Amino acid sequence: METETLYERIGGDSAVRKLTDRFYDLVFEHELIARLFKTDKETIREKQRLFLTQFLGGPQLYSEIHGHPMMRARHMPHPITEDDAVAWLQCMAQAVGSLDLDPELKDELFNRFPRTAFFMVNCETDV
């Protein structure tokens, strides 16, 4: 018996697009972490959509286009503090909360992010 991936259970591509768009609407305006996202905003959204698709068990789109995610290495040029990780998670919590999903599924989805967010921390003090 095949089990559905989290990607499939939340609604696939349409849900990931909604999540990504809502998340970056919040991030790009966030006073603490907006500084981390200075390149082309549409490129940032698209890379995140591809990554989340893969991260949640969908097609390996990010790897097909950009190679192995190597997320920590890709984030090393940007100083990221624990406060940044918390702010990022707050934005993600709001974005997940905006989806039309069962609360338990929202919790399962959100719980995929804290470990990764804190793994990106690479400096102790604010910049």
Automatic annotation (TrEMBL):
SUPFAM superfamilies from the UniProt entry: Globin-like
A Pfam family: Bac_globin
GO MF annotations in UniProt: heme binding; metal ion binding; oxygen binding; oxygen carrier activity
Keyword annotations from UniProtKB, A to Z: Heme, Iron, Metal-binding, Transport
Annotated InterPro entries: GlbO/GLB3-like, Globin-like_sf, Globin/Proto, Hemoglobin_trunc
Keyword match Repeat: no
Family under the similarity heading: Belongs to the truncated hemoglobin family. Group II subfamily.
The protein's name: Group 2 truncated hemoglobin YjbI
Biological source species: Dyadobacter helix
Gene that specifies this protein: yjbI
